[in-house]
Amino acid sequence: MEDIEQRAVRYKHEAIKKLSSKSFLQSLFGTNKTDQAIDYYQRSGNLFKMLKNWKEASYVFSEAAELQVKIGNEYDAGNSFVNAANCSKKYDLEKAIYYLFRAIEIYASLGKFATAAKYHKTIAELYHENQEIEKALKQYEQAAEYYKNEDNLCAAKACLIIVAEQNALREDYAKAIQLFEQVADYELNSNLLKYSAKDRFFQAALCQLCLDDAQVPRMIEKFNIKCPFFGGSREEGFINLLCKSIECNNLEEFNFQVKTYDSVSKFSTWYISVLLKIKRRIEGVIDLK
Questions:
Q1: pLDDT tens digits in sequence order for the chain, 289 residues long
Q2: Each residue of 102-137: b (16+ CB within 10 Å) or e?
Q3: Domain range for 95
Q4: How many domains does the chain have?
Q5: 57, 142: one domain
Q6: Model's pTM, two decimal places?
Q7: Are residues 125 and 197 in the same domain?
Q8: Do residues 61 and 13 share a domain?
């Protein structure tokens, strides 16, 4: 009786055999034998997956995908490339990304922009894990564009927030502010999302404090006009108190206000990083005196 590995190998060889026996006309029109070869490759891939033989699984799924492209089964080809990518992730990141790009190209050509966006986001996450931040941000932005095409503002804003936050951590505050304000505008146009806009304006104001606190009052005024939920909020009050402590170069007061706010609403890692950068601005001014 065959074990799983023997069956996986046999199905792979059956696929190759089906292809090698094709006539000229069959190769042009994609026939039963090509369909059978695809089926054998996919069966082989599933068995190799069970065995966690990721390299072989990736190879046979990619072979199935190439055949599906040749006979015009684009959507199925996209799915096969995704299967190949999922297996490749286990041993070769670049190959996984290559297969995902192949899948995206197919989904986008078919108008499946939500699916294309999903895999742009997957690529972004892979780059992010690999500390290739610049490449990751481009993929998040592309995912956001496709999500916007499909009117999926929740998914688009999630991607853009990641891009904005990463730009702030990289000290590209101008880009971060622009993106936070852009997301806030999307949120204000949605009854479901509008109450989140004040969080984005809060993040934008903190980024501005990293640059130049002199511009913050004008920014706050603009945010209050756009977003009634921001005016009078704890977030607005906190920004105003930080501005005062920065104006006076009062590090003790700055620390007190941060601790007081954090005791009620815990700051995430991102907020802590940005607040530390603002704190360093004050420390720098004090050191110069």
A1: 469 999 999 999 999 999 986 544 555 555 688 999 999 999 999 999 999 999 999 999 999 999 999 999 999 999 999 999 999 999 999 999 999 999 999 999 999 999 999 999 999 999 999 999 999 999 999 999 999 999 999 999 999 999 999 999 999 999 999 999 999 999 999 998 999 999 999 999 999 999 988 899 999 999 999 999 999 999 999 999 999 999 999 999 999 999 999 999 999 999 999 999 999 988 875 554 4
A2: bbbebbbeeebbbbbbbbbbbbbebbbeeebeeebb
A3: 1-110
A4: 3
A5: no
A6: 0.89
A7: no
A8: yes
